[in-house]
Amino acid sequence: MPNLFDTLVARLPLDFRVLFRQFLLRVIDLEALSIQADVSGFLGQFAGVLLMLSFIHSVVTYIGLIIQTTAVDRIDFLLHMEHYFIANMMLVIGLITVVSWDSTFPDRRDVMVLSPLPVAPHTILAAKVCASAAVLGIAILTLNVASGILLPLLLGPMHGSDWSFFRALPAFWFTLIAASAFLYCSVLTVQGFTALLLPRRIFLRVSAFLQLAAFGLFLCVYFVQPSITTADALADAKNHWVLSSSPSYWFFALFNQLNGTLPARYGWLASRAWAGLGFAVCEAAGLSILCYLRTMKKTVEEPDLIPGGRGFEWVSSLGNSLQTAVAFFSIRSLMRSRQHRVAFAFYLAIVLGLALSLLRHELAGAGPLLLSMDFLISTFMMMLFAVAGLRSVFSLPISLTANWVLRTTQLRVTAEYVAATRRTMILLGMIPVLVLSLALSFSFRPRMQVAAHLGVLALLGCAMVEICLIGFYKVPFTCSYLPGKANVQLAFWGFVLCLFAVIIPCLQFEQRALRDPYRFALLLGFLIAALGALYAYNRHRARTAVIYFEELPEEPITTLKLSA
After folding, report:
1. What is the spatial distance between Cα 236 and Cα 380, in angstroms, rounded to a whole number?
2. Which H or E element spans position 173?
C-alpha cells in the first residue's frame, strides 16, 4: 500500500510535479552539461560533503566541551558553538542562494517552452520556489544532521534539566530554518525589487554586480565579524553595533529566546529576528508575484550574453596571435557572461575572505610585524584558490551551439593552445594574487624575507598552473561539462588531508628556510626542478593530444566472464 507521503504527492497537480522535478535538477545549467551527465549523482556528492562536515563539527564540539575545566567555560563554549552553527548555516544558504541566483525567476527557455502550454504562471512560480526550497532543505538537513541533535543534548545538563533537550531540539531546528528563510527571501527581495524598478536590459547588467556584491558580503561578514557570545562581550557597549547589524546574532538570540535561556535585556535582538523574518518573507512573496506578472513576456527578448558598452577598448599583444586571441576571449567571456563571472568571483571572494580572516589581527597592529606563519598560509591559499578556481571556470562552456566556429578554425597544433591557456591562467589567476600579496606584505618585516617568500609564491603559482594544465586539452569556455567526472568528495577530503599532512609542514620548512640561506637555496632548487619537470611533461603530452569539445565518460570494459 502506498504510504502517506506518496498519497499526498499524488494529490498535487500533475503539471506542478513535472515542473518541480525539472527545476530541481536544474540547479546546474543543463545547457553547459555533457549529454551523459549525471546531475543527481553530482548533487549527491555535495550532500555527502556537507554530511561529513556535520559529523566533524559534532566531534569537535564534544571534544571542545570535554576539555573545558569550569562550568562557566562550558556555558561560554556552548554559546559560541550555537552562534557558530547558525553562522555556518547562513553562509552555506547564502552561497547556494547566490549561486542559483536566476533559478527562481523564469529564463528565456522557460518562457519559450512553457508559454504555449496551458500552464499558469503561479504554477511555474510555485514549482520554482518549491524546488529552491528543496535544495535549501537538503543543505540544512545534511549540514546539521549530527550537530543539530548533539548540541541540544549538551545544552540540557548545562541548564540543570535533561528534559530541556525536548525544548532545545525544535528550537534549534526552527532557528536554522528561520535564518535560512530570512537569507533566501532577502536575496529574492533584492532581485524582485531590482527587476521591477529597472528595464530588463539594465537589470541583467545590475543583477550580475549584485551577485558579486552578495558573494563578497556573505564571505567577508562570515570571516571578519567578531565572536560575541560570552556574557562580558554581550554586555560591552562597544559591541552593540555589531549585534544590532548582524543577522546571525539576531537568530542566535532567537534560539535562546525559544530555549528559555535569553536574558530579558537582550530581547530586542530576538525581536529583530522576528521582524526581519516576517518582512523578508512578505516582501519576497509580493515582489515575486509581481515579477512573474510583469517580466515573463520581456524575458524571451533578452540575450543570455549582454553586449558590452561602446567605450575605450585597450588592445595589446599578449604573445603570438593565438595566445592573444585565447587571452582576450577568456577575459571577455568572464566580463560578459554572468554565470562565469559569478563562479570565478566565488573563488576570489574566498581568497579575500581568507586574507581578511588570517591577517586581520596582524594588519590591526600599530607597527611593522614579523613575518608570520599565518601570512605564509594565507598567501598560499589565495594562490591555490585563484588558480584552481580559474581552471574550474575554464571547464564551463558559454554556448555549446557556437562551438562549431572554434572547431572549424583549429589551424594550429594542440601544444600552442596549451601554451595560450597557460599564459591566460598566469595573467588572470597568478599575477593578481601576487599583486595582492605584495600589498599585504608591506606590514611585515624583514623585507628580505618577505621578498624571498613572494619569489617562492611565484614559483608555487607557476607550478599550480602546470598542474591545472595536466589533461586540459581544450579551449577555455568551449567544452561541455560532465559533473561527477571529478569526485567532489574525494577531491575535498584529499585537499583537507594534503593541507594538514603536506602543505602546512612544507610552509613550516619555508619559514625556517627564510632564515637559513642553505635551506632557502635547497627550497628554490626543488621548486625550480619540480616546475621544469611539470612544464616538460605538459609539453610532451601536448604534442600528441587532440583538442576536444565534448566531455564523455570513459568507456567501461565489459567482460563475458568465461574464465574458470
Report:
1. 36
2. helix 165-197
Instruction: Give how far Cα 165 sits from Cα of 22, 87, 148, 169, 177, Å.
Output: 39, 22, 11, 6, 18
Rg (CA), the chain: 26
Burial (CB < 10 A; 0-12, 13-18, 19+), residue 543, is exposed
Q: Rounded to an integer, what distance in angstroms lies between the CA atom of residue 178 and that of residue 140?
A: 11
Helix (H, G, I), strand (E, B) or coil at 198: coil
Question: Under DSSP, is residue 33 helix (H, G, I), strand (E, B) or coil?
Answer: strand
560 φ, ψ (degrees, to nearest 5): -90, -5
* Cβ atoms of residues 528 and 456 within 8 Å: no
CB atoms within 10 A of CB 249: 24
What is the share, in percent, of the chain residues with pLDDT greater than 70? 76
Contact 431, 318 (CB under 8 A): no
The residues pairing with 445 across neighbouring beta strands, listed in sequence order, are 370
> What is the C-alpha separation between 30 and 482, in angstroms, rounded?
10
CB distance 359 to 378 below 8 Å: yes
Cross-strand partners of 444: 369
Q: Is the bond preceding residue 247 a cis peptide, omega within 30 degrees?
A: no
Query: Could you tell me the end-to-end alpha-carbon distance of the chain, in angstroms, rounded to an integer?
Result: 45
Matching residue, cell 565518460: 553
Q: How many CB atoms lie within 10 A of CB 18?
A: 12
Q: Please, which contacts does 293-298 make with residues 24 or more away whose CB atoms are closer than 8 Å? A: 293/121, 294/196, 295/105, 295/195, 295/196, 295/200, 296/106, 296/111, 296/115, 296/121, 297/111, 298/200
Give me the count of residues in the chain: 564
C-beta atoms surrounding 344 within 10 Å: 22
For residue 116, the tally of other CB atoms under 10 A from its CB is: 8
Name the residue type at position 331: I
When pLDDT is cut at 50, 70 and 90, the band that residue 320 belongs to is confident
Contact criterion met (CB below 8 Å) for 377 and 507: yes
The cell numbers describing 31, all together, are: 545547457
* pLDDT score, position 138: 86
Angle formed by the axes of helices 247-259 and 165-197, nearest 10°: 150
Confidence of residue 526 (pLDDT cuts 50, 70, 90): very high
Could you tell me if 507 and 383 are in contact, meaning their C-beta atoms sit under 8 angstroms apart? Answer: no
Contact 352, 216 (CB under 8 A): yes
How many Å apart are CA 373 and CA 360, to the nearest integer?
A: 14
The torsion of the CA quartet 247, 252, 256, 258, rounded to 10 degrees, works out to: 50
Which of 374, 400, 531 lies closest to 37 in space, CA to CA? 400
**Of 209, 38, 16, 276, nearest to 129 (Cα)?**
16
> Can you say whether residue 471 is alpha, beta or left, with left for phi > 0 and alpha for psi between -120 and 50 degrees?
left
CA pair distance 82, 85, nearest whole angstrom? 5
Q: What angle do CA 466, 469, 472 make, to 5 degrees?
A: 170
Q: Which residue has the cell 586539452?
A: 473
Rounded (10°) angle between helices 71-99 and 121-144:
150
Q: What is the pLDDT of residues 408-466, one digit of tens each?
A: 666 788 888 899 999 999 998 899 889 888 888 887 878 899 899 999 999 999 999 99
pLDDT for 372 equals 80
